[in-house]
Amino acid sequence: MSKAVGSVQGKVVAITGGARGIGFSTAQRLIADGARVAIGDIDEARLKEAVGELDITTYKHLDVTDPDSFEGFLDHVENELGPIDVLVNNAGIMPIGSLHAEEDRVSRRMIEINVLGVIYGTKLALRRMVPRRSGHIINIASLAGESYVPGAATYCASKHAVKGFTESTRREYRDSGVHLSQVQPFFTNTELVAGTSGTKGLRNVEPEDVAAAVAALIVKPRPVARVSKVAGVLAVSQAFLPRAVTERLTRAMGTEETFTSAVDRSAREAYEERVRTN
Length: 278
Fold this sequence. Notes:
By secondary structure, the chain is of the alpha/beta class. The chain has ten helices and seven strands. The N and C termini lie far apart (37 Å).
């Protein structure tokens, strides 16, 4: 199958954390657009369900915190489908709550998955893509990487790290033939925001919105896609406004309670248990 320039058609795309949420929706969208998609995920039971729903045959158990597991996933994809054109580093977790109550093992797990997983995947993909001067790495960051979120301090730190890492790497490899991009979604209606009420005046985005942004980046690479544009403008504007103004604004929008006092803990129980232990 040909790989048209400026098209998703025929491209080999590997997606981490592809069994649920944004990763699953991205796989659905890219398959519909004609890509040859493979997914990896740490949850083997859900992974097998997902590949049946997606009607694909290339998949593998993947622990993004283990470079050997990650390399094995990429090897498997290339053995089955050919050289990877696009890697979507999507896997991530978001336990929330007061920082002083956050167990050290949970903090470590968040950094290992959200940051080291992206770093490992990017390095492994670059080693394959740079020699052939072709490829695209898309890292799913977050507008939390442009913001400051009470109740999600470690998650927020991890996404600031992904933002800085991706942009630094993009500049380093800008003449290599390999594109690097990041997608920064606002609160997205997946399990990550279960039990939260969102932000006053802004709608949560859908995973399909993020998937559409990924598809658009593959067609026309650029450094950053913020989803939604309105939320992106508000997040970025914080860097240019006095601190007192931004803090009054976030209080008025309820952002400072979204992941602290306004959480329905029972609605998050299943998600929190899974991401803290799996």
